[in-house]
Design a protein that fits this description.
The protein is an alpha/beta fold and 303 residues long. Helices cover 44% and strands 18% of the residues.
Length: 303
């Protein structure tokens, strides 16, 4: 007659009962009802044809058989817990969570992540796209990419790329009208405006761009306003007019011929995108791998 295969779930319940010698406490730890625990134990007893626990008033008493296997059962579940923790730790070690604001994620990171995956297929990247400032010290993410990040306790900041602002438009606009020579010619062209959030007013709009570069404020032929940066770029690609944009983020689009920058003038304000890195982390090796990759990739993309 073949030996019965005992349920691991039932053995787990028996292990907890052994530890506490109380069905109610065992049920609480297993997040089930006391009746469910009793049923699991009774099922084991039925399969082996022997009693494992007996009631003595309100107490549970282990039988001699139960006492003889208790030590082995404890060791077995300790080993299972060790293996489970080891597997979880290995999986955890291969994950890297990156917090990044939407504009950088859409215009730069999304286009380049495939290169990282190609070179480091063993690492899984979790991208948290949000303007929320996550707490790296609490492990809400492993690394963050932020615009003009502020120094905070327990964190280090590395400048990833200096920002500079240029005027761009669709090639179709230049091809359809007289060649533009200077920004002064923009008075004959529609201007696309991005209404920056109040907390980011250090980034330029058209009046400040003209002023910083020494030109008078030019109103343009007509204007359209967006409160979404990506829509502003898409409107320029669609030939709706000129817009001011971040050269590092849009360089790939220029290289692809979707946009052109007809003027040599660029505006630098000392701002840029920063890597925010915890000074202490269990994933320091993986963080360093990502930092080295993105620094190399970002420099190559703007040269």
């Amino acid at each position: 007659m073949p030996k019965p295969i005992l349920s691991l779930k039932a053995l787990r319940a028996l292990h907890i009962v052994f530890e506490n010698q109380n069905f109610s406490i065992a049920a609480h730890k297993l997040n089930v009802t006391p009746a469910a625990v009793q049923q699991l134990v009774r099922g084991l007893e039925f399969n082996i044809g022997k009693s494992l626990v007996k009631r003595n008033g309100r107490e549970l008493v282990l039988t001699d058989l139960a006492k003889s296997v208790r030590n082995d059962l404890d060791k077995g579940f300790q080993l299972i817990e060790h293996v489970s923790n080891n597997l979880s730790h290995k999986l955890f070690d291969k994950q890297l969570k990156i917090s990044v604001e939407p504009t950088f994620a859409m215009l730069w990171l999304l286009k380049n992540l495939e290169d990282f995956r190609h070179h480091y297929p063993e690492l899984t990247i979790l991208v948290d796209v949000s303007n929320r400032i996550v707490d790296l010290n609490k492990g809400e993410a492993d690394i963050a990419i932020r615009y003009n990040a502020k120094i905070s306790h327990g964190l280090s900041i590395k400048r990833l790329m200096e920002d500079q602002f240029i005027a761009v438009c669709s090639p179709a606009i230049i091809e359809s009208k007289a060649k533009i020579k200077t920004p002064l010619n923009l008075k004959n062209y529609p201007l696309i405006h991005f209404d920056w959030p109040q907390e980011k007013r250090f980034t330029p709009d058209w009046p400040s761009w003209f002023e910083q570069l020494g030109y008078p404020d030019i109103k343009g032929g007509s204007s359209i306003h967006f409160n979404d940066y990506i829509m502003t770029i898409q409107a320029a690609i669609a030939g709706q007019g000129f817009c001011i944009t971040s050269q590092p983020l849009i360089q790939d689009t220029i290289d692809a011929g979707l946009l052109i920058a007809p003027f040599p003038e660029t505006l630098k304000l000392g701002f840029g995108y920063d890597l925010v890195i915890p000074k202490s982390s269990q994933k320091q090796e993986n963080i360093s791998t990502f930092v080295n990759w993105i620094e190399h990739k970002s420099q190559a993309s703007i040269q």
